[in-house]
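INPUT
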Amino acid sequence: MRALSVILLSLFSALLLSCDRRSNVAIATEENILVIGNSNEPKGLDPHLVSGVLESNLIRALFEGLCVDNPSKDGVADKGVAKDWKHSEDYRVWTFYLNEKAKWSDGEPVTAHDFVFSYQRMLNPRLPSKYADMLYFIKGAEDYNKEKNPDPGSIGAKAIDDRTLELTLRGPIPFLPEITKHYTWYPVPRHIILKFSGGDPATPFTGWTKPGNIVSNGPFQLKDWKIKHYIEVERNPHYWDAGEVQLDGIRFLPISNSYTETRMFLDEQLHMTYTLPPEMIPYAKEHVPAMLRQEDYIGTRYLRINTRRQYLDNVKVRHALACAIDRAQICKSVRGGNEKPASGVVPPFAGYTVPPGASFDPERGRQLLAEAGFPNGEGLPEFKFLTTDRDVSRRMAEAYMAMWREHLNINVRIQQREWTTYLQDQYDGAYDLAGAGWIGDFLYPTTFLDMWTKDNGNNNTGWHSEDYEAKLKESENSIVPEEKLQLLQDAEKIFLADMPIIPVFWYTTNYLIRPEVKGWHPLQLNNHPYKNVSLKRN
Amino acid sequence: MSENEIEEPLEKGTSLWKDAWLRLRKNKMAMIGLWVVIFIFLTCFVFRWFLPQDPNAVALGNEFAPPSAQHWLGTDQLGRDMLTRILDGGQISLLVAIAATCLTVSIGIIYGGISGYVGGRADGVMMRIVDGLLAMPFLIVVILFRELIEVRVDLIGKFLTSEWGWDKDFVRRFSNIIPLLLAIAAFGWLTMSRIVRTQTAALKSGEFAEAARSLGLSHFRILFRHILPNMLGPVIIYATLTIPSFILYEATLSFIGLGVEPPNSSWGVLIKEGANYLESNVSMLIFPAVVFSVTLFAFNFLGDGLRDALDPKAAKD
Amino acid sequence: MLRFIFSRFLQTALVVFCLVSFTHVTIRMIPGNPFADEKAMQPHLRERVAEAFGLNESFGNQFVSWWSNVLTKGDFGLSTSLFGRSVNEILTSAFPVSLTLGLGAMFIALMVGIPSGVIASLRHNGWIDYGSMILAMVGICIPAFVLGPLFQLWIARNVSWLSSAGWERPADILLPALTLGLAVAAYVARLTRGGMLEVLSQDYIRTARAKGVPGHTIILRHALRPALLPVVTYLGPAFAAVITGSFVVETIFQIPGLGQHFVTAVTSKDYFLLPGLVLFYGCLMGIANLIVDIVLTILNPRLREA
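OUTPUT
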């Protein structure tokens, strides 16, 4: 008995004393590895099967597209796999010249055939790719994906030769280079996928993305993937610009609890967090202001209205609901992250002026309600407000609830649901009002406007308008940049006049970053190219 | 033998209770626990109604206010009065725990009593079922109950509001906890039935039970007049100890996201949200957490004290 | 003895089978779509996804093929929430972590619970009794999602070699095991105290004291062993529960164990991971209970039942 306790105690002390006194961050910086929080376990690493932001962070480290983000300037397309590109006068046909040095991490060259294969695979109607509609800019893509045309060759993507890719688009798209930065436009290794899928590229779960199998063309290659533990990538020696890459590796930690993530950061375990929960912003501002970043993030938080429901099909009721939300107060008291009250669904960015839309005007709200036949909220039922089960969502819902009750005498019932149920209820139209958000995929207003068309799976409000869609189409067909934006603004005016959603605020991204991380500049899309990031070691 | 001699054990039972009470009195911690429990109940259910503040009255711009005359414990992250939120939360947490315990005890006594008394193969099967159910992920049951029962509970709530004119928010608050307490009870009766079964099996082979059987008394009579009263001790002890574990379980469910519907609060919700403010506004956590922990300590000490008092030699759990 | 083990094995197998089947049925009763994602899936692709997982077949077919895969190939299928990851992989990667954490927690539970219970029993109804029990009961009076962050703030932040969260260094096991173990420690302390109180009032203890046997020998050699019998009974199910019921601790301390998977499998309706987990857990519980029963029967032949 006594001997046992002595053994145990000595083991225990040996365990503790063997520990390195340095912090995790110090060790990682020493090894030149960036440790970054990445919110959750990815659903996969196959660019064609995923659709989330956290997956895009991983895919961006491993793969590279025709163009890449400039590390500090928004809206600038730097050379990626493509070393040069030109377009036809009407912006419908684009030709990309690929860099001869572009290689996969197993030494195979990246060719235009890889890109064509990639687009054909993603659009293959037998592959469950959630984000296939990102490729619909290409002519013939939508028809092939929706099985209206069985020939994959009908897609406007052609390999003129190994190093030349020609894309024919469905309309004039002057901002195509911006779109090619998105991971849905990345190439995938044809030789590897075919090897693991037994010849049929549309087999979904083949294991080609496992460490040891996967081959990628970006600045890093996959080293280790431990489920719910971490994903580590290491330097890709075959990357065409490997000389520019300064990090030796990146470790992504799937920390789902953002409070734990902040605490880990404050305990020197990470170089950078994925986010910073609103509750901790005041603490960060006071204690680590130099490590706090609050940057514009191209996204909108809004309330989705089910316009098919009785009472909510009345446009005046919708406007009244919009008028009762004190956006400034919500941004200040409930969020505290420098968010900006939103009047429209498209956030302001270079070249786009947001048309006047929703604003806080309780008097007008009451008036509209009376005009609609429900003075002082009489006759209106209790609406159900659907939101996620996070604490922040709960707070915002309680704030909306109080505002609607105070200004309009309308009651809502808050229903918090877990993530997939919350999403599916909206897809099924099983809600009255729902809190929702949308992050832009590229820097152009259409990423916020295209979704409100009639059959778009991300609409879910039951609203659609032929005028609206006509304007969108007109804008796409124009080749004058200013005219395109003006038409989009007109479209948004039509949209906001009907108020099928209530804009609340435009996002900012709040996160913590250590001073030794260099080359991480504010970008509106928050898609930081890792090859320009470095760790300053003493 | 006359009936009177068989009545004797019951009479002995009454003075047993008095002995137990005296023993309990000696246990200072248990007595403190008892008074704390009574105090918490009175505060949450009686004193609360004398406070004018509305715990759901959002007042943006007045968040995290320090204690003042108007808000004795200050305000929370949306400017709501902290004290009434804690008391209202206590109503919910205590109600859920007590109602679930009552259900648990009822079901457990019936199931465990039958199993222990009948014995043999049936007993084995019944207990194996309990063992199996203990391995089940009750989270599914919680979610299912919420999905299936919520609609029916809503209907009853609507009926109460429209036909009987009860206040809507009041009804909503309390009907909301029904799926939750049913789910918790569905999980709690398992261990209770185990305990009851062990007690019943032991008592079944006791002397007076043998005597009663040899007299030809019906099983029913033996169960209710002899076995059950003697089992009351462990049942009371376990019930008192179950209540705090149910309060804790409700808090854990709130953490997972399956708690009560907003804007209502329970202690679990308050603590969960408070823990997020640990670094910035620690009073958001301290006030509800202290009330929560003190209550749980009180119940636990009371339960332990009852165990010491009612069964000073036994240590069966 | 062997017959006993065999019959228990059969009983456990039957119970586990019913449990897992029940899980299969109930998970499909919860409304919702496990594949729902932020970007809506085109309707014609929803069927493809269902097909990829075999969910387009009838329930009967799915049920039979799942069981036959499990029993013949040991293949639990693909997880729907971790889109296409094999359930086997998930289980094999998470179990060792949970096992280590569980062992650490049990160790702490015993190290804290048994001494507390013994000390409390020696000074029955004194302030040391109460103080000792207060310490032991911290785990069941302060929820883990409060205790955890408190430890992270007070301890981890101030001790350089202790991390706030994560599972990298050996020392990382300390705080989560402490948080998890304290909850179990409360029951261990209670059982130990109760057991000690009963044993200490026995005649043979009084005899030993009268004979002049020193106090600590009485406690350690004569009283402790029989007093710990109830603790042993409790250990089996406690260990199994600790391995899978540690969701809160795993979330707060970012530990890649089974507890997290358990809860996410339910909340995101993972049609294949959840039955796999339930099967795993059921077997674990069965084995734990069996071992405890065998040990008890060896220690106390009077407990053997027909």
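end of record. The mean pLDDT of chain C is 83.
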